[in-house]
Amino acid sequence: MPRHVSEHIGERIAHYRKLRRLTQRELASRAHISYSMLTKVEQGAKPATPAVITAVARALFVQTADLTGQPYLTELRQDELDILIQPIREALDLYDLGADPDVAPRTVDELLTNADQLCALIRETRIKEAARELPGLIAEVTTAAHVAPSEKAWQVLASTYRTAYDITTKLGYSDLCVVALDRMAWAAERASDPVLAGIRQYLRSIVYLRSGQFDLGKRLVGVGMATLDQADAGRVRDVAVGQLHLGAAMLAARSGDGDTAAGHISEAVRISERTGEAVRVNWLSFGPTNVIVHQVATLSEQYKYAEAVRVADRLRIPEDWPASRAAAHIAEVARAQLWIGRSEASLRSLQRARELAPQQMRYHPMVRETITGLVSAHRSTPGTLSSMAHWVGI
Q1: Which CATH number does the domain housing residue 44 bear?
Q2: pLDDT for residue 64 is more than 60
Q3: Of 148, 213, 367, 393, which has the maximum CB count within 10 A?
């Protein structure tokens, strides 16, 4: 059954706040956020930013997933995505079992092509298709790597683990995404690939970004940068370094250090001028477009919503840019538009994000919170907004 509209992040915050016997002012003080922001979030009148969610979670000594409510089991079951998680969980546990005698693997080049196809499916937000095919591919590549170990075979296996991370992250299974990253490190070490190892540290830093452990995230960025120093100079390394700067910018912005965030964005701009759009280089989507997308996000994290919207209004996303990244950016803009009172524009942005990436947006906490805020802002719910609310389970 769909959840009642009151079951939003703000209500969960209020629930845990009361369990801790804190007033709104006491919690706001502990989390270092404004009292008025906390009250609006608890009421569902405004969407909670990731920075607010992580700050409040730390102040309440709970996990961010306790406040976001992920995973959304009712909706996952409706989309038949829940049944795809257990096979992925089992496939991630095959790594050290050696070759499976019942598996006759294809050539490494064929497996690489298949792994790249799954990466493309994720970027096109065809999550169900990728999730259905992934466990079998992991099993096949695992056997191939054990039967005939080679740098390329281990690289392909690392790519499949990266896809497992992408899928489990998008569906809210934070425990599995951490396991997938551990497996990625295991394969990258055997491939002796410093770029893959550096990307893995970037992805780890994003996990800590989401959980509000910013200092650990920053340390991981530093480790990733040092690891990439061992890679051959060139566009591939530049793309990974540039993406690490974008991750560092988000960590700085969310921890309240706007100057450092701006510095990392500036460095990423410099690198992107050299790399150009590099959408398929290790599937990081790095380039001038992604730099501006992260600039918008860092401004939002600092509550500079009007400035974030102004920057976003000047951005023209290339038609061939990954739908998953474009939709996430547009959802970010929708939240900022709601905060500055542009509710009609916010709804239009959410509709566009849904068109681009329906599965991904259905499970995106920010989308749900923004829809909740739009419902709260309207005395009567327009048909389009009502449809959007029902779609995400509100």
Answers
A1: 1.10.260.40
A2: yes
A3: 367
Instruction: Using a cut of 0.70, tell me whether the model's pTM lies above it.
Output: yes
Residue-wise pLDDT tens digits, 231-257? 999 999 999 999 999 999 999 999 889
Residue whose tokens read 């389970």: 393
pLDDT at 4: 40
Res 91 pLDDT > 50: yes
Q: Flag whether pLDDT at 393 surpasses 90.
A: no
Confidence grade of residue 78 (pLDDT, cut at 50, 70, 90): low
* 345 contact partners, CB below 8 Å, separation of at least 6: 334, 337
Contact 130, 90 (CB under 8 A): no
Any alpha helices (H) in 2-150, and if so which ranges? 9-19, 24-31, 35-43, 50-60, 64-68, 73-78, 85-91, 108-123, 127-147
DSSP 3-state assignment of 232? coil
In a domain, 144, yes or no: no
d(CA 172, CA 10): 19
Cα–Cα distance for residue pair 201/53, rounded to 1 Å: 23
Please choose, from the candidates 13, 74, 49, the residue with its C-alpha nearest in 3D space to the C-alpha of residue 366.
49
Q: Which domain holds residue 57?
A: 1-69
Distance (Å, rounded) from C-alpha 97 to C-alpha 73?
31
On whether residue 33 sits in a domain, the answer given is yes
* Residue 199 identity (one-letter amino acid): I
Q: How far apart are CA 135 and CA 127, in angstroms?
A: 13
What's the token pair of residue 214?
């910013």
- For the cut 70, the answer to whether the pLDDT of residue 381 exceeds it is no
64: in domain: yes
Give the number of residues written for the chain: 394
Give the residue from 320, 299, 211, 184 showing the smallest Cα distance to 250: 299
Contact between residue 162 and residue 186 where contact means Cβ atoms under 8 Å apart: no
Q: Could you give the CA distance from residue 213 to residue 378 in angstroms, rounded to a whole number?
A: 36
- On whether residue 15 sits in a domain, the answer given is yes
The three-class DSSP label of residue 73 is helix
What is the number of structural domains in the chain? 1
